[in-house]
Amino acid sequence: MSAAREVFGARARALAGDLIALRRRLHAVPEVGLRLPLTQAVVLDALSPAAKEAGGALEVTTGAALDSVTVVLHGARSGPVVLLRGDMDALPLREATGLPIAADADRMHACGHDLHTAALAGAVRLLAGHRESMCGSVVFMFQPGEEGYDGAGAMLDEGVLDAAGRPVRAAYALHVVADLPAGRCYTRPGPVMAAYGVLDATVRGRGGHGGRPHEALDPVPVAMAAVTAVQTYTGRRFDAFDPVVVTVGEFHAGTAPNVIPADARFRAGVRSFSAEATTRLAAELPPLVEGIARAHGLDAEVTFTTVLPTTVNDPGHAGQFARTAVELFGPDRYEELARPRVGSEDFSRVLQRVPGAYGYLGAAPPGRDRPAGNHAPTAVFDESVLPDAALLLAALAWQHVGPAPTSCP
Predict the structure, then answer these.
(1) Greatest C-alpha distance within the chain
(2) Mean pLDDT, the chain, as a whole number?
């Protein structure tokens, strides 16, 4: 049995009811963006037992520009600082699971952040009960605004990496996945999630009568040609082993079928897996669209905004994640990802500053042949994984702050 499992295993199982109850409280009050007052209040309330167990060694602060919660647990002796992250925000869609705990709102915890928050609160309780054995400190980062609001960047700006008074040595985050086998852990060294950027293009033409296109400058076919060119360019000019994924999710033009509009706009999400590819995309896609417009005698206004960098796992810490999962749960419950996942994640900003690792925990509900994935209004997560999620997070921190001779002076 691993040292961490021996220390925390029974306690994690005993917390199962509390963690599930906390997850359900969070699921009932989904909030979107950086301001999550109800969620923050639930988290602060849930931390009360850990504060008592820590005997005054638990420091809790809240954010200014966002409703974050930062918790610092100081061990009995000085040592390294490790950070654990759990995101708290929901998505702007109406739940269609039909479950008794379904939220009655146009917001839903469809990405499992309610489980992340409950698991992180569980890790606080597990570690708080052993602070007298700890050599170092753990920073628990309860983060709003992961879903497109760069909450991680905002918490970095507000000093989350300095919260313990010493530099963070390592950082870890865990994400549940609704359509992967429950209890199975995954990660990989190097890129684990994609960088994300947005290409925003407006083609300017000259409106006119739908029956006399020769008297107008129709921007619609030109914008359509630009969409095709962007797809062709990224498919033919970038290495297949350093891929680029482009999705044109918006195309807007016109108000009537017999009117040629004056302009047409499209927006594309662009994902990549290396800094070189991201830099090239930002430099090369805007002039490509502008050139196509000029070839047709039209103008184009084009911007490329890099939203998030690639999430890159430090190889050593990814290996630590893998070893910890195997030690806790056995080799049959860990699998190294063959390739990165194509979503994007603002924990990438933390990993730009601190070596660490980001991994996954399957949470597919039992008895479903084709479970819905994250972000679906029908996404259902198996709550029974919560004790293991809390245990894994606590164990990752324990590798750095547990009572080992190398960390205890």
Answers:
(1) 84
(2) 95
Distance in angstroms (rounded) separating the CA atoms of residues 136 and 177: 31
What span, in angstroms and rounded, lies between the C-alpha atoms of 69 and 44?
Answer: 8
> What percentage of the chain's residues is helix, strand, coil (to nearest 5)?
40, 25, 35
296 vs 300: CA distance, rounded Å: 11
Q: Which residue has the tokens 């300017």?
A: 204
Mean pLDDT across 339-354: 96
| Helix ranges restricted to H, 194-274 | 219-237
- Coil, helix or strand for 393? helix
pTM of the model: 0.92
pLDDT in tens, 175-233: 999 999 999 999 999 999 999 999 999 999 999 999 999 999 999 999 999 999 999 99
- What are the angstrom distances between the C-alpha of 49 and each of 141, 327, 335? 18, 28, 34
For residue 387 the two structure tokens come to 């004790």
Q: Could you tell me which of 18, 58, 63 has the C-alpha nearest to residue 36?
A: 63
Residue 54 CB burial class (10 angstroms; 0-12, 13-18, ≥19): buried
Cβ proximity of 154 and 67 under 8 Å: no
Q: Are 84 and 156 in contact (CB under 8 A)?
A: no
Name the DSSP letter for residue 364.
Answer: P
86 Cβ neighbours under 8 A, 6+ residues apart? 113, 116, 117, 119, 120, 121, 140, 141, 142, 143, 173, 174, 393
**Helix or strand or coil: residue 100?**
coil
In our burial notation (b when 16+ CB lie closer than 10 A, e otherwise), range 242-267 reads: ebbebebeeeebbeeeeebbbbbbbb
Q: How far is CA 397 from the centre of its chain?
A: 19
Residue 142, token pair as written in the block:
């309860």
**What pLDDT score does 402 carry?**
87
Q: Residue 58 CA to chain centroid, in angstroms?
A: 26
Strand, coil or helix: 264: strand
CA dist 305 and 198 (Å) reads 5
pLDDT (0 to 100) of residue 5: 84
Query: 59, 81 in Cβ contact below 8 A?
Result: no
Provide the phi-psi class of 56: left if phi over 0, else alpha when psi is between -120 and 50, else beta: left
